[in-house]
């Protein structure tokens, strides 16, 4: 006789690949999900130890080194930070976030503070690759697109949509951590 599982088994695919994102988002720990939010999930395998990757990411002031749309992250204290990102049409958006879970070497989860211009929550997980080839880094993000579906379309047209950014940012993170630099095809940005 087989026992029923209290929760269906999960695979290693990012949550955005699940057939029913509403059901999946409700089961993702550390994710504040509301109806109408957009769910993004991306993973990459990086040939570095997870503790090293976690430590680099946990210093949020490092994030603009590989996240193209982030203009600045200012650490306020051990759990709060202020973010400024580049938005479509030359605009900027700022908000404050709070870390909701911090498991050294394994997980960082956050949620934007109430009243944020861009309501979001998410996590970055660091897991040893099953093949022993480094670390699988998975970013999961839920956000409320400003302007709804139209705002999401405009962001996509300007290549500022988080799903597009997550893929590119993780690729740059991999380059930076494995080679020490990010290959670019354009002139460097001025700060």
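Sequence proposed for the structure above (191 residues):
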């Amino acid at each position: 006789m087989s026992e029923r599982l209290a929760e269906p088994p999960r695979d290693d695919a990012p949550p955005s690949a699940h057939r029913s994102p509403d059901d999946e988002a409700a089961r993702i720990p550390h994710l504040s999900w509301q109806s109408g939010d957009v769910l993004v999930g991306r993973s990459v395998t990086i040939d570095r130890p997870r503790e090293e990757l976690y430590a680099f990411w946990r210093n949020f002031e490092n994030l603009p080194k590989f996240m193209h749309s982030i203009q600045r992250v200012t650490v306020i204290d051990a759990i709060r930070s202020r973010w400024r990102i580049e938005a479509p049409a030359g605009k900027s958006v700022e908000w404050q976030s709070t870390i909701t879970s911090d498991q050294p070497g394994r997980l960082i989860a956050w949620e934007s503070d109430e009243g944020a211009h861009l309501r979001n929550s998410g996590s970055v997980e660091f897991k040893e690759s099953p093949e022993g080839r480094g670390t699988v880094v998975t970013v999961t993000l839920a956000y409320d697109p400003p302007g709804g579906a139209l705002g999401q379309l405009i962001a996509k047209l300007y290549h500022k949509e988080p799903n597009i950014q997550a893929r590119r940012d993780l690729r740059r993170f991999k380059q930076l951590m494995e080679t020490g630099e990010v290959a670019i095809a354009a002139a460097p940005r001025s700060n």
